[in-house]
Amino acid sequence: MSRHPLTSDWYPAINKPAAVLHWLNHVETDAEFIVILDADMILRGPITPWEYGAERGQPVSTPYEYLIGCDNELAKIHTRNPGACDKVGGVIIMHVEDLRKFALLWLHKTEEVRADKAHYATNFTGDIYSSGWISEMYGYSFGAAELNLRHIIRRDILIYPGYIPEPGVNYKVFHYGLRFFVGNWSFDKADWRGTDMVNTCWKKFPEPPTPSSLSRAVENALQRDLLSIECAEALNKALQLHHERRKCPVKSTINMHSALLGMKDDESKELVHKTRNLPVPKFSANVSQFRHPKIIDRSLRIWMIGIWTLSVVGFLVVISMVLSSRKGETSRIKMTRKKKPYTGLSEKNPYEMEVRSET
């Protein structure tokens, strides 16, 4: 739902609360906790809610410190409990019963903030584009404040590629929302908005540098770049798996087709002619001894089927001939009986002849 069905407002970020509400209304689950991520996030490992302190009535999330609206009049306008507004979002770990109460309010508050164009300015929202783009984030924080859901804020769950990681922290989520660099190579999701990465077979992002090419001089920078490379490789790996599941044609076939399309008509015809006239390798007369066992078995089965078929046909022919001869003999007997002269004797009484002679 990128466009609002009632207001026609084009706002793809509303998908997040709308999708959560739809899921809750259409899916039966026995899960105690629900983990919610953004679309531009990659899960690096399992998230165990209780390891981060999540409880019913106390969700866990990651810091969004630029949500300055929690501290100014924006919160006072859109929530009755501005003091409970937490600057959080992105990764959300919430008890399913809390989520059932909260989901519809999250959607309504998102619509409410999105409609408040008078407070789109950066000094109210922290949105550098002053476009209301982060209305969904405020919808979450204001909705949670309404229900007095106070968050445990964890900094060890999510990391942006390009940021220097805290030593020893095993981050569970990449958030590739911003441009990040590894040397002269960089990646920004915004650069690819006009490219159909999903439906173009074997399409992928530019490969990042290899880990072996990185400098080991500064440990923090090394760990930062290694995480950035991991994120980029994960994106390309996901695209690779997606194209395989779509059963995209083999790359060599695509390359050959593209090459032919790029040639002039005469050049393509010449290439096809050359391909057709490639020499055929000659095999020796004893090539049969090198046949694969499966080929031999297949030939044997064919011979057996042929012999069996001929036997059945021969049997049917013999039976047909026997039946035909018997039919002819029966016909001759009937004809003989019809030609026999009448003697006046009854076949049923053989003594009738004697009686007649005496009289």
TrEMBL record:
<protein>
    <recommendedName>
        <fullName>Hydroxyproline O-arabinosyltransferase-like domain-containing protein</fullName>
    </recommendedName>
</protein>
<keyword id="KW-0808">Transferase</keyword>
<feature type="transmembrane region" description="Helical">
    <location>
        <begin position="302"/>
        <end position="324"/>
    </location>
</feature>
<dbReference type="Pfam" id="PF23452">
    <property type="entry name" value="HPAT"/>
</dbReference>
<keyword id="KW-0812">Transmembrane</keyword>
<feature type="region of interest" description="Disordered">
    <location>
        <begin position="338"/>
        <end position="359"/>
    </location>
</feature>
<feature type="compositionally biased region" description="Basic and acidic residues">
    <location>
        <begin position="349"/>
        <end position="359"/>
    </location>
</feature>
<dbReference type="InterPro" id="IPR044845">
    <property type="entry name" value="HPAT/SRGT1-like"/>
</dbReference>
<keyword id="KW-1133">Transmembrane helix</keyword>
<feature type="domain" description="Hydroxyproline O-arabinosyltransferase-like">
    <location>
        <begin position="9"/>
        <end position="210"/>
    </location>
</feature>
<keyword id="KW-0472">Membrane</keyword>
<dbReference type="GO" id="GO:0016020">
    <property type="term" value="C:membrane"/>
</dbReference>
<keyword id="KW-0328">Glycosyltransferase</keyword>
<dbReference type="InterPro" id="IPR056508">
    <property type="entry name" value="HPAT-like"/>
</dbReference>
<dbReference type="GO" id="GO:0016757">
    <property type="term" value="F:glycosyltransferase activity"/>
</dbReference>
